[in-house]
Design goal:
The protein has 14 helices and 32 strands. By secondary structure, the chain is of the alpha+beta class. Among the domains are: about 160 residues, Sandwich (Immunoglobulin-like); about 100 residues, Orthogonal Bundle (Neutral Protease, domain 2), CATH 1.10.390.10; about 90 residues, Immunoglobulin-like (Sandwich). The strands form seven sheets. It has an eight-stranded mixed sheet. The chain has a six-stranded mixed sheet with strand order 18-21-22-23-25-24. It has a five-stranded antiparallel sheet with strand order 9-10-11-20-16, with no helix packed on it. β22, α5 and β23 form a beta-alpha-beta unit. The radius of gyration is 27 Å and the shape is globular. The N and C termini lie far apart (about 60 Å).
Length: about 625
């Protein structure tokens, strides 16, 4: 029996290696597999590790001066096998410094001196920031060399930092000032960068275009604002009785168990002065969040507030609190809490079919559409379809990247592509529009052009339309057609296993590919390579057709490299139409031609290849007419 088990294990290991061998793996990534932090079957390796931190932060906001002042205590845990001789901090608000490199233009009124750091202690010893050989600030990075006592494996390090900065005025990427007393404040505290098994320290400074990559950490945050202001943030409010008056405290608490929308603050109440405690000039809102990659908060003195809850797991009766806070004039936002509730129900029970992983989620009415852990910054939309679209897309990000720890700087398609794909069905039903069609049309036009780049190129090396196509459009379609090819049940099984294996960690593309290969028991490299690694475009062509002895045969050529489904519409002599459909799995042998056979009782007149729901960059070769054919 033991020998039999050894043989089975040998076969499985070699099957995993065979699945992996066809895909190009860069040398720096391959070293992680050699060190045992990753596995070719898609599971975390036996030597997998990741670092983390505990943040205790106190921050105050002066709305009139747009001034944020903070102090933090950080315990950093070096769980790596390496001795760290430097620590890297992300100081993202330095993006607004006059001299910082940016991938876009910001208004002059948003420029500033960046983050002013006062006290900086390392293990209770002061760190000299100015004119020091051990400290260097470069764009949005602070690089601290540790020369005397390097940071050994399995040890901790303590930091205390005080800082301040001016909130950017006007619209700023992802955060900022939305009127004189309304702000969403993100990327606002000195945060230790990721040190991982792939790159070591993440040395990519932020230029505004690419997004982010953070470790999972614990946060206790105290936010002090004038007593007429509310605060909505990542995590759970720990002291609602200290900041809300009894009437509003009662409504807030009820919302955590209510299946119906509760209007915590209505438009006729927003200026009443009776919502927040006024025992002193300022209130301190205390929030706590565990094992999350970031912390963001918002504040205003005139936003309306709706909330509701939802059971996301019937087996455990797990509930999630959902809220929308918004301007009175934002007409679409009066429905956002209900749209959000329907969205989270869809994600929890249909796709991805995983109960929502966080206890709460709030949508703040700022601008654009930007995700943060447990809080979202969304602008208003003129059409309901737009509101449904941005609500569901940004809410999907709570799974990808936050729950899954995706490196958005390098692999944006692992989160933006997922957040585009996951709500397709929900958006079509609830928003009454076809999101697939919009993406397909865009991909058809752009695919195979000089500016289109493969998804596996790190997206921090891309800009503009090239980046958007690579991290939103193409991956969303790739996921969708893969689901079609595998079938909904098998795709869900693969997705659930991927999420189970890698939530709370830092998966890379190969962990995704290898997990799907292993769980599906299929070598999907024929699909991964053209869709994710290579340059090319989708183009199928009819190169021949025949009808003999009641059997229709249609020969299809894959002119482009992208494997897509095959759909044929056959018009018969009696004017009826026969539809034939094959998923992209028809190309699994990596062949360039296939023959579709169909028994017909009536003679065919013509065959048309394709549909609006399948991308094809050249449709001129998609038609066959039997009456004009010489074959």
């Amino acid at each position: 029996m033991q020998n039999f088990l050894k043989i089975i294990l040998f076969v499985l290991v070699n099957l995993s290696l065979n699945f992996a061998q066809e895909l190009f793996i860069p040398r720096d990534i391959l070293s992680a597999y050699e060190k045992g932090t990753r596995s070719f079957d898609g599971t975390p390796g036996k030597n997998y590790w990741q670092n983390s931190a505990d943040y205790k932060i106190k921050v105050s906001v002066n709305p009139a001066a747009r001034l944020v002042k903070g102090s933090e205590k950080i315990i950093y845990y070096n769980n790596s096998p390496d001795t760290l001789k430097e620590i890297i901090f992300n100081i993202i608000q330095d993006l607004n410094k006059y001299e910082s490199e940016r991938s876009f233009t910001i208004s002059k009124e948003s420029l500033s001196e960046g983050v002013q750091i006062g006290k900086f202690l390392l293990n209770n010893s002061p760190v000299l920031l100015e004119n020091s050989e051990n400290v260097r600030r470069r764009n949005t990075l602070l690089i601290l060399k540790i020369t005397d006592n390097p940071f050994p494996p399995k040890s901790t390090m303590n930091f205390e930092i005080e800082w301040n900065f001016i909130i950017p005025k006007g619209r700023n990427p992802r955060m900022g000032t939305y009127d004189s007393t309304s702000f969403l404040i993100a990327y606002w505290f000195p945060q230790i960068a990721v040190y991982d098994d792939i790159d070591g320290w993440d040395m990519l400074y932020h230029t505004g275009e690419q997004e982010f990559y953070n470790d999972f950490s614990n946060y206790e945050v105290e936010i002090t604002v004038p007593n007429t202001f509310g605060v909505w943030a990542t995590g759970i409010l720990q002291n609602p009785e200290e900041v809300l008056t009894p009437e509003y405290l009662n409504k807030y608490k009820n919302a955590w168990t209510s299946d119906k929308i509760i209007n915590i603050v209505k438009k006729e109440e927003v200026r009443s002065g009776k919502i927040y405690k006024f025992d002193s000039e300022f209130n301190t809102w205390k929030y706590k969040a565990e094992y999350i990659p970031d912390f963001t908060f918002s504040t205003s003195d005139h936003y309306l507030w709706d909330a509701v809850s939802l059971v996301v797991d019937e087996t455990t009766d797990q509930r999630v609190y959902l809220a929308a806070v918004y301007k009175e004039e934002s007409k679409d936002f009066y429905e956002v809490a209900e749209i959000l509730r329907k969205t989270i129900n869809y994600f929890s029970n249909e796709l991805p079919g995983i109960p929502f992983p966080y206890p709460c989620l709030t949508i703040f009415n700022g601008s654009g559409g930007m995700e943060f852990p447990m809080i979202i910054n969304n602008g208003s939309a003129e059409r309901r379809s737009g509101t449904v679209g941005v609500t569901s897309h940004e809410a999907a990000h709570e799974y990808f990247p936050f729950y899954m720890g995706i490196n958005e700087e390098k692999y944006g398609w692992m989160d933006e592509g997922m957040a585009t794909f996951l709500p397709f069905d929900f958006q079509e039903k609830e928003g009454e529009y076809n999101p697939r069609l919009h993406n397909i049309r865009g991909y058809e036009r752009y695919a195979g052009t000089e500016m289109e780049l493969p998804m596996m190129i790190p997206n921090y090396q891309m800009k503009g339309s090239s980046q958007r196509m690579a991290i939103y459009v193409r991956p969303a379609l790739a996921y969708d057609f893969l689901r079609d090819a595998l079938g909904k049940e098998l795709f869900a099984e693969c997705m659930h296993e991927y999420i189970k294996r890698w939530n709370g960690k830092h998966p890379i593309p190969y962990d995704f590919f290898f997990t799907f290969n292993e769980v599906s028991e299929k070598d999907l490299n024929w699909y991964w390579k053209p869709w994710f690694f290579e340059r090319g475009y989708p183009d199928l062509s009819i190169i021949g057709a025949s009808f003999e002895n009641g059997i229709l045969e249609v020969t299809i050529e894959k002119v482009g490299i992208i494997p897509t489904p095959v759909e044929l519409s056959v018009t018969l002599e009696d004017s009826s139409i026969v539809e034939i459909y094959e998923t992209a799995m028809i190309w699994e042998r990596n062949q360039n031609t296939v023959i579709i056979k169909k028994e017909l009782g009536v003679k065919p007149l013509s065959v048309t290849l394709g549909s609006d729901m399948i991308p094809d960059s050249d449709t001129e070769n998609n038609y066959f007419n039997f009456s004009t054919s010489t074959h």
